[in-house]
Amino acid sequence: MFATAYALPDLLVFAAAALCILTGAIGVIAMQNPVHSALSLILCLLGVAVAFLEQNADFLAAAEVIVYAGAIVVLFLFVIMFLGVDGSRHPHVEPLVGQRWLAALGVAITVAGVITLMVNSDWVSGVMSTSTGGTGLATGSGNVTQLGDSVFTTYLLAFEATAGLLIIAVVGAVLLARRERPADPDVEDDVVDVDVEVVDVEDEGEWWIIDHGTSEEVDS
Amino acid sequence: MTIPASWFLVLAALLFGVGAFGVLTRRSALIMFMCIELMLNAVNLTFVTFARSLSDIGGQTTVFFIMVVAAAEVTVGLGIVVAVFRRRESTSVDELSELQG
Predict the structure, then answer these.
(1) Is A96 strand, coil or helix?
(2) Would you call A147 an interface residue with chain B, using a CB distance cutoff of 8 Å?
(3) Were B91 and a residue from A108, B29, B55, B79 both cysteine, which residue would form a disulfide, CB within 3.0 to 4.6 Å?
(4) Interface mutation target, options A8, A36, A72, A118, chain B, most CBs of B under 10 Å
(5) What are the tens digits of pLDDT across the range A49-91?
(6) Given CB atoms, is A134 within the 8 Å cutoff of chain B?
(7) Between vectors from CA B72 to CA B26 and to CA A31, what angle results, nearest 5°?
(8) What is the C-alpha separation between A67 and B72, in angstroms, rounded?
(9) Is B73:B65 a contact under the CB 8 Å cutoff?
């Protein structure tokens, strides 16, 4: 039925993207192991990238894969592995009675309301808005040039602000994740003393290697 | 004829709903962050859809900035999770209840 109204490749691409998005999203919230959730998140993000591609947002599709699936999910996986979090610690703790059902009800009402609003309004077709303020969207061979022009001319101040935001985020992340180390100025001197003692007792193992390096430096 | 914008909008609404349900029900801070990413991506998909249907590049530019802010947010948020885990040995948000008075 739909094949007569819409081109079949477009339908197939949309179906594949929708399947990836919904499967991945449900996988994120259904998996008990956080690693599986992160992998489901990759599937969902790839589906979103395909949906971007289908709507002529080439640069954003590439950025979606690179930034989200390539950087953010890897950061998630790194933190999961680093913390050693497993899903079996609190498998089915429900702090508030009926919270799942209330959450499901609220989400269902919200989504249904949004879809009803979309059906009953002119938002979707864009009839009321004729895009007077913006420049027309290029079609066909993508619009990377147009997006770049927009970022570096109209939204230049916001672009510069994102540079400051990223610097602040990096500094903040480093400060947050920094391990509290003891403020002992004699730590390096202690290491040197330990090396000297290792020479005396002739201990085997890793310290012997360090001692070997220092002794070579002393000899040379 | 290409796929109508309403299909993508419904898909984005469903994706947002799944993400919101995950934030409301899952108790692990990491999973909640992932669900926030899901909701952000739903909004991104909506922006791109309206950029196409209204033929305005501003929607795609907004998505560009949302991606930057999401990256910064995840960086700081995961730093907070790591810092909390060092002190608590847990990422469950229900155990962080000192501020409730």
Answers:
(1) coil
(2) yes
(3) B29
(4) A72
(5) 999 998 888 899 999 999 988 889 999 999 888 887 665 555 5
(6) yes
(7) 25
(8) 11
(9) no
Q: Which residue of chain A has the CA closest to B17? A: A107
**What CA–CA distance (Å, rounded) separates A109 from A94?**
22
Written as six digits, the tokens of A38 are 């992160």
CB A75 within 8 A of CB A67: no
Please say whether the structural domain B5-90 has been given the CATH code 1.10.287.3510.
yes
Q: What residue ranges of chain B have pLDDT lower than 50?
A: none
Which residue has tokens 């770049």? Answer: A148
CA angle B10, B53, B62 (to 5 degrees): 85
Q: Which residues pair with B28 in a beta bridge?
A: B92
How much is the ipTM here? 0.91
How many angstroms away from the CA of A98 is the closest CA of chain B? Answer: 10
- Least confident among A97-106, A179-188, B51-60: A179-188
- What whole-number distance in Å separates Cα of residue A40 and Cα of residue B41? 14
Buried/exposed B12-50: b ≥16 CB within 10 Å, e otherwise:
bbbbbbbbbbbbbbbbbbbbbbbbbbbbbbbbbbbbbbb
User: Is residue A124 classed as helix, strand or coil in its secondary structure?
Assistant: coil
Rounded to 5 degrees, what are φ and ψ at A31? -70, 140
Model pLDDT, residue A209:
44
Q: Which residues of B touch A115 (CB under 8 A)?
A: 10, 13
Please give the Cα distance from B98 to B66 (Å, whole number): 32
Question: What residue segments make up the domains of chain B, in order of their start?
Answer: 5-90
